[in-house]
Amino acid sequence: MYDTKHDSEGNMTRHKARLVAQGFNQVPGRDFDETWAPVPSSATTRALFAVAAAKDWEVDHVDVKTAFLNAKMDKEMYIKLPVGADPAEEDDIRRPNLALYGTKQAGRLWGIKLNKELSAIGAVRSKVDPSLYTWSHPMHGIFYILVYVDDLLVAGKGLEGVQMVKVSVSSSFDVRDMDEVKDFIGKKVMRDQAAKVLTLSNPGHVSSLLGAFQMDKSAPNKTIMVSGAKI
Fold first, then answer.
1. CB of 190 within 8 A of CB of 203?
2. Which of 65, 89, 180, 204 is the S-S candidate for 10 at Cβ 3.0 to 4.6 Å?
């Protein structure tokens, strides 16, 4: 599968290519059981940003590379290698040992693996939102880790403590350190630390909505609400 990553403005940031299984062929109960991935509620995400702004916390962003491949596959299944794979044997069939992208259970297996590793470094999972963790340090205090699939936010008072958490995570996974959060799950993060204000926006998504609305010639009297303003 070939894909492109975009920032909150809709600009392309990088190309991606990965081997993806045909998960639509999987049979429930035979090839997979539960299907979920670690995704926080929007209320939890907004609350973390709000508290971070009010308390002047540091908020850094970490991206785990090829996250799903850190977990082992839990079912016996087989895939046919794509054209161009090495070795290029005709009709070459292989059994994946890792949670291959495209499989129904890949997100769940990654979530279980991540929870195990975060628990090992001392992070405690929230009982209210399982995608939020707290990490306590005797010198630096309490820090929070918010998980959105393979994107992690690390928030807390003091950059040194945030760096310690990121180092602990990178000891278990290959990560891309994005430093201070600028974009998160498609949202642009703008911050005025002096005023203790943090603003979230999604200009790329809003632009696409407006474009789709303008192309809808069948309903000229239709209205749309964007950020509380009628257009």
1. no
2. 204
